TrEMBL record:
<dbReference type="InterPro" id="IPR050229">
    <property type="entry name" value="GlpE_sulfurtransferase"/>
</dbReference>
<dbReference type="InterPro" id="IPR001763">
    <property type="entry name" value="Rhodanese-like_dom"/>
</dbReference>
<feature type="domain" description="Rhodanese">
    <location>
        <begin position="43"/>
        <end position="131"/>
    </location>
</feature>
<dbReference type="Pfam" id="PF00581">
    <property type="entry name" value="Rhodanese"/>
</dbReference>
<protein>
    <recommendedName>
        <fullName>Rhodanese domain-containing protein</fullName>
    </recommendedName>
</protein>
<dbReference type="InterPro" id="IPR036873">
    <property type="entry name" value="Rhodanese-like_dom_sf"/>
</dbReference>
Length: 133
């Protein structure tokens, strides 16, 4: 994982804090742009794309290969997220995914990245999404 982090030049472009203002959960979240997320997805097979939106949002459109675990179901399904892969978390705009990253960090996952701007930014960049037929 460290090699991927170093070789891809992934960086911490800022910090968000899950549950801002809550003294109990102050997990630092590493943010990456949609462009950087796509670059990482393109160069590594060891990436798990986690979509924490609702099933309805996911069914409207989603990133190819994304794994849906709505944020409200995340704690009960943490075992479905591989600990040996880089995890890129996204939602619609970035708020829920930042919170999800904090939750996952508290559960022991290390290579976590919040995709800033979520799928809205992904689409704004012109990156492909899958839609139901």
């Amino acid at each position: 994982m460290f090699f991927l982090h170093t070789a891809t030049g992934t960086y911490n472009s800022g910090k968000l804090y899950a549950a801002e203002g809550c003294a109990q959960t102050r997990a630092a979240v590493k943010n990456i742009s949609a462009k950087r997320a796509r670059e990482i997805m393109g160069i590594s097979n060891d990436v798990f794309i986690l979509d924490v939106r609702t099933k309805e949002e996911y069914n409207e459109c989603h990133i190819k290969g994304a794994n849906l675990i709505p944020i409200q179901d995340l704690e009960q399904n943490v075992n479905k997220i591989p600990k040996d892969k880089t995890v890129i978390v996204h939602c619609a705009k970035g708020k829920r995914s930042a919170k999800a990253c904090g939750m996952l960090e508290d559960k022991g996952l290390k290579e976590l990245y919040n995709m800033e701007g979520g799928i809205n930014q992904w689409k704004a960049e012109g990156f492909p999404v899958e839609k139901p037929y």
